[in-house]
Amino acid sequence: xxxxxxxxxxxxxxxxxxxxxxxxxxxxxxxxxxxxxxxxxxxxxxxxxxxxxxxxxxxxxxxxxxxxxxxxxxxxxxx
Amino acid sequence: xxxxxxxxxxxxxxxxxxxxxxxxxxxxxxxxxxxxxxxxxxxxxxxxxxxxxxxxxxxxxxxxxxxxxxxxxxxxxxxxxxxxxxxxxxxxxxxxxxxxxxxxxxxxxxxxxxxxxxxxxxxxxxxxxxxxxxxxxxxxxxxxxxxxxxxxxxxxxxxxxxxxxxxxxxxxxxxxxxxxxxxxxxxxxxxxxxxxxxxxxxxxxxxxxxxxxxxxxxxxxxxxxxxxxxxxxxxxxxxxxxxxxxxxxxxxxxxxxxxxxxxxxxxxxxxxxxxxxxxxxxxxxxxxxxxxxxxxxxxxxxxxxxxxxxxxxxxxxxxxxxxxxxxxxxxxxxxxxxxxxxxxxxxxxxxxxxxxxxxxxxxxxxxxxxxxxxxxxxxx
Lengths: 79, 380
Description:
By secondary structure, chain A is α+β, with helices and mostly antiparallel strands.
């Protein structure tokens, strides 16, 4: 997926305890323009539910979720 | 040659550590083999937990201040100054008042600052009890508030004392009830994620209490702006809340010094969460809010981390392997009203399990707040 989906910004929240990854993502969304694609790196399983739930609530869109051996890459496009 | 340990920041972590080192390394300091410097840009040590009680008229700001010189062991060199630059390669500090100093070991305990200006309108429309000026201004508003909509919005995490926003709404609810005003005061609590606290166990405990007390809850609410003219709080999620009195927990940041030195983003030092050693520099530790460990930004965390770093530094001075580690130990009293409180104890592996609220725990909290000055001195 990462070959076809480019991120404008990467937020590396690996190692952060819940809700750190989601809060790091929200902090990044505050800083960028509409239409920006953010790649969130998280090794916390909770991010798999936290992030889509917040995206639904806030009108942002989860484009894809990739799983590597050690962490997840969650691509979010800002509204 | 004298080995120099520099501790930057005279809050709970820095002060407890400086006194711990003075005690632990007394012989080496007396022999001139070690010197310990505590650097702080204020002559006073400030005990922030007092601020929760100021808006309710129960404590004064002066209750949370004492001169550092009275708290710090005479074996510690106390320097009232500000560090403006850290050269981690040359192991050197630059001071605002001029001059520089080298270090063999550096501990950063610079704590949190408020980034209120990051939210447009918050400074004009909101109040807080996370600063002396905020607590004092909020007191003037709260003491005369007899009807309307009180909104407490947690705007950023991490923030100091993660339990304090819950404590504030629990106390406000009880305070207005006891004064016969609760029916005229609506209370709303907002939180950035899908529950009422970052820790799911504390959130699960707190939510039923809030429901029982008719405290409105808005989750997934990330404040984007405040319209101080219209008294309206707007979230990134598109929700508007009209308020009569807004208490905002502002976004927090560490000091610029940390990022400028390449030690971490937003003023938080990237550390090993067990050894508390900086990831990006040698001979640098961070404790308390400054250390990005994932542990809460709480005084108990800074206190326990200071003990760990004190032991590790003593090992280093004596040429022994450092074995002391921090395992996430956290203790918090949580006020659930004006005369009841709960208590939690947890660490990286063991989650919190709040005990049933009682008056005894409330008095234990107040008693600890009084005896805190013994903690700062390294005696408790």
